[in-house]
Amino acid sequence: MLVVTLLAAPAAHADELQPTSNRNEPWVSVSATFGIATPLGEAGLELDAHLTDWLSVSAGVGLGASGPQLAAMPRLSMPINKAARVYFGVGASEGRYTWNELTFDEPAKKSWDRAYWLNGELGFERRMADGTSAWTTRVFAGVGKVLNDQDFTCNDEHCMVDHQGDGASQKYVGMSIGYAFANRP
Questions:
Q1: If 119 and its partner were Cys, which of 7, 46, 94, 144 is the partner (CB 3.0–4.6 Å)?
Q2: Model's pTM, two decimal places?
């Protein structure tokens, strides 16, 4: 329900906001991003440069369950209409990461001081404008894979013997809401 509300939020001022009409000009947005295990963690701030109608590049900082995160991702998109698009992105992120075994009796715990991730993402983005600025909303899901999988430490022998490959990849979901700055001549 929250996702539907965020995606529909710009429509609350439908008399003022219209779908953007000139998607081919570059524009930049700043977004607050929230989610579960996203490349920016559970909450982050992202700068997204839309270079063309089909290409954008983002970079951001965030805070995950294990600490600060950094991420960057180029995205290829396909417009659905003047206000909406679907996209696919592949990017990189890094930050402290801890994997915990889901059990109640002395769980295994793997930690990376700095985990380097390769992330793949699918998403939907909507932009509504009033002529000088625009609101953007985005929902996304993806998967990340730790590239330096051997750089972890374990809390005990059980972790080292039984959980070598565990925690090396994870799925994520998230959403963002942001402000897009108008094109300047």
A1: 144
A2: 0.81
